[in-house]
Design brief:
With 186 residues, the protein is mainly α. The chain has helices spanning 33-64, 85-97, 112-115, 117-133, 140-149, 151-156, 166-185, and strands at 11-13, 16-18. Helices cover 55% and strands 3% of the residues. The protein has a two-stranded antiparallel sheet. Strand 1 (11-13) and strand 2 form a beta hairpin. The chain is globular, with a radius of gyration of 23 Å. It starts with 10 loop residues before the first strand and ends with a helix.
C-alpha cells in the first residue's frame, strides 16, 4: 500500500512511532535546532525569568513591611509591599483602560488596598513586572532600586546602581541577602 505524502499521522512520541489515535500532542519526526531553541525558550528559559520576581516577593515584603498588612510609611506607602498612591493611580488607570476585559467590580478605591492582602500582593507584583518590562530594569539591583527609590530617580542617574543613595543600596543589599540565603538553603 502506497502511503500518502500528506498523511501526517505518523509521529514520534517519546521515541515511539504512533498513529496518534487519541489526538495526543506529539512532536514531528524532525526536531530542528531552531525548533528546539524555541521549545527551550518557551518551556524552560521564560518560566525561569518569570519565577525570579515571584521568588523575590517574600523578601521584599520582609524588608518593606516586616509582613505587616497594616503598615503605613511616613511617605504614605501602605501594606505588605508598601504601595504608593502613584503606583496605585497608574495601576487603576490601566485597569480602567482594560475595562471591557475585566469584571466591573475589578475597579477599586484607594481605601480598598488596606483591607485586601491579595490586592496588595497583586499590585506589588504588577509593579515589579512593569519595572522589569516597560522600564528595562534588567538586573535585580536596578529592579529593587527602582522599586524602592522610584523609577524617576533611577532614570535621573541613568540606571547606574553605583550612583544610588546609601539607603537604597542598603535596601537592595538587605533584600538580596535574604534572597541569596534562601537560594543557598534550597
Amino acid at each position: 500500500m502506497k502511503k500518502n505524502v500528506s498523511d501526517n499521522s505518523e509521529f514520534f512520541m517519546f521515541g515511539h512511532r504512533t498513529g496518534n489515535p487519541r489526538g495526543l500532542r506529539t512532536l514531528p519526526r524532525v526536531l530542528t535546532p531552531v525548533s528546539f531553541f524555541i521549545l527551550a525558550f518557551f518551556f524552560i528559559i521564560q518560566p525561569c525569568l518569570a519565577d525570579e520576581i515571584d521568588n523575590l516577593i517574600p523578601y521584599i515584603i520582609q524588608v518593606e513591611s516586616g509582613g505587616d498588612v497594616w503598615a503605613v510609611s511616613d511617605k504614605g506607602a501602605i501594606g505588605l509591599m508598601q504601595i504608593t498612591p502613584i503606583v496605585w493611580v497608574e495601576w487603576n488607570n490601566i485597569q480602567r483602560l482594560n475595562y471591557d476585559e475585566i469584571h466591573p467590580m475589578r475597579i477599586f478605591q484607594w481605601d480598598d488596598i488596606h483591607f485586601s492582602k491579595g490586592l496588595q500582593l497583586e499590585l506589588g507584583e504588577w509593579y515589579l513586572r512593569r519595572l522589569k518590562d516597560k522600564y528595562k530594569c534588567d538586573t535585580l539591583e536596578k529592579l529593587l532600586g527602582a522599586y524602592n527609590w522610584g523609577i524617576g530617580n533611577v532614570r535621573k542617574v541613568n540606571y547606574d546602581d553605583n550612583r544610588f543613595p546609601k539607603e537604597v543600596k542598603k535596601y537592595i543589599k538587605d533584600v538580596l541577602k535574604l534572597y541569596d540565603r534562601s537560594k543557598n538553603v534550597q
